[in-house]
Amino acid sequence: MFFHIVTAAFVAMLILPFATNVLAVENYGLDTAAKKAYGSLPAVKTPVDVAGAIVGAILALLGIIFLIQVIIAGISWMTAQGNEEKIAAARGSIIQGAVGLVIVVAAYSLASYALTLARGAVGL
After folding, report:
1. How many Å apart are CA 62 and CA 111, to the nearest integer?
2. Are 87 and 80 in contact (CB under 8 A)?
């Protein structure tokens, strides 16, 4: 249980500082830079694009969580000092994290394919 709390706190520490920067986009001139780079800003996004962005963000967050799980389990394995119980627990956690990463990549692929079909169905 402690491991899960520490992992959640670590992920929160990584993500929360960037949340405030999202609200201050115009203060940094990104709007102007986008207009100069692309000529104009992208048009209003369709519901399919919004759904794709949401699904992509969720899957990216899950991928980061599983990657952190694998890294923490690797550190746990390295610091097990030959204790077979700790090594077995770390090995199991690495396998779980790797399976989670494979599932996230597969889900991303399926979601990307489904959203491509949805864009084609609505004529975009």
Report:
1. 14
2. yes
All residues at 6 or more sequence positions from 115 whose CB lies less than 8 Å from its CB, including other chains: 48, 51, 52, 55
Q: 50: which 2 tokens? A: 């919004």
Q: Which two tokens stand for residue 122?
A: 């609505």
Q: What is the model's pTM?
A: 0.59
Q: How far apart are CA 99 and CA 114, in angstroms?
A: 22
Lowest mean pLDDT of 2-16, 68-82, 100-114, name the range.
2-16
